[in-house]
Write a structure and sequence with these properties.
Elements lengths: L7 E5 L5 H10 L3 E5 L3 H20 L7 H7 L1 E4 L2 H7 L2 E4 L5 H14 L5 E5 L6 H4 L8 E6 L8 E6 L5 H13 L3 E6 L6 H18 L4 H10 L1 H4 L5 H8 L1 H13 L9 H8 L16 H21 L4
Parallel strand pairs: 1-2, 1-4, 2-3, 4-5, 5-6, 7-8
Antiparallel strand pairs: 6-7
Helix pairs in contact: 1-2, 11-12
Length: 314
């Protein structure tokens, strides 16, 4: 299916994530059938969407007149069959319990048209046990929307073993159409975002348990240090900017002093041995043009200064 032809979405689950996802689709002009088993859950979900939109109006993200139009494109319903029969795109966002998710997809598979792509919202689950609950495993794609879903740009598109490339690309382009910043990843435990976030969380808890710093200072170090830089420079791009030769030297020093970083990844050692040290040599984890080699650091600094000014920290 062409992502431009998706106009109606059946979205099952009006709990933690569903309302924000429904809001995103509706704001992009789509008709959304928001499904849950009880009317009171739907009522709470719609109330939350209204509150979200009030904040958008307050911060001038949308105009006051847009609120009613967005809400008008969301139809809450307990009739899942009705929603599925209308849908050009099916999404499930219920609690991460395998059997519950399988049940939803098994039911929806009976009612949705054969060409409709199925997606799940999951933060760590593998895709094939869900895909095989349907008769369309080639059109079953995992997605991980980051909380709060109506604000955060990232959606991970999870490539399950049975998903076709056409289905992956349809979901990817559709998510771009509704204003998200999708990335594609293999079907691995915790995907990208939560894998890195979990590593950060473990490190922060280790520091707290060891008494290295207070909880407040650990959080402040992240917020005002590398965490502040992350919107501009990701961790791999930062390694290139720091110099892979310096990364290697620091890595080896920490390990010699009793740290537990483990061995330096072999592909990094190979790049260093070949003289590919990152931005300063024109190639590292990334490759850089001569113009990028000269200008990337300055552009990074400009963006960081703009962020500091916006937050009134400078």
């Amino acid at each position: 299916m062409d992502p431009k032809e998706i106009n109606r979405v059946a979205l099952v689950g009006s709990g933690t994530m569903g309302p924000g996802i429904a809001q995103t689709f509706a704001r992009a002009g789509l008709e959304v059938f928001l499904v849950d088993i009880r009317q009171e859950i739907l009522d709470k979900g719609m109330e939350r969407i209204g509150e979200n939109l009030d904040v958008f109006i307050e911060l001038e993200v949308i105009k006051p007149g847009e609120k009613e139009a967005i809400l008008g494109r969301i139809q809450p319903t307990t009739d899942m069959e009705f929603a599925c029969r209308q849908a050009d795109y099916f999404m499930e966002a219920v609690q991460e319990v395998l059997e519950r998710k399988q049940q939803v997809h098994r039911q929806a598979d009976q009612w949705c048209r054969p060409e409709v792509i199925f997606t799940t919202n999951a933060s760590h689950m593998r895709m094939d046990p869900l895909a095989i609950a349907t008769k369309r495993p080639d059109r079953f794609v995992g997605t991980h929307w980051v909380n709060p879903p109506h604000i955060m740009q990232l959606v991970e598109v999870v490539r399950g073993p049975s998903a076709s490339e056409a289905s992956i690309q349809t979901v990817y382009q559709f998510l771009k159409r509704v204003g998200k910043a999708p990335v594609i990843c293999k079907d691995s435990l915790s995907y990208i975002n939560n894998y890195i976030q979990s590593a950060l969380g473990r490190a922060a808890l280790d520091l707290l348990e060891q008494g290295v710093a207070t909880a407040e200072d650990i959080d402040r170090a992240v917020n005002t240090g590398f965490g502040f830089r992350l919107p501009v420079v990701g961790p791999l791009a930062f390694f290139d900017m720091a110099g892979l030769d310096n990364v290697r030297d620091s890595w080896e020093y920490v390990n010699r002093m009793g740290g537990n970083l483990g061995p330096l990844p072999q592909f990094i050692q190979d790049l260093v041995d070949q003289g590919h040290w990152g931005l300063k040599t024109g190639r590292g984890i990334y490759s850089y043009s001569e113009k990028e080699t000269r200008g990337l650091a300055n552009e990074r600094n400009r963006q960081l200064i703009r962020m500091l000014k916006t937050l009134k920290r400078i």
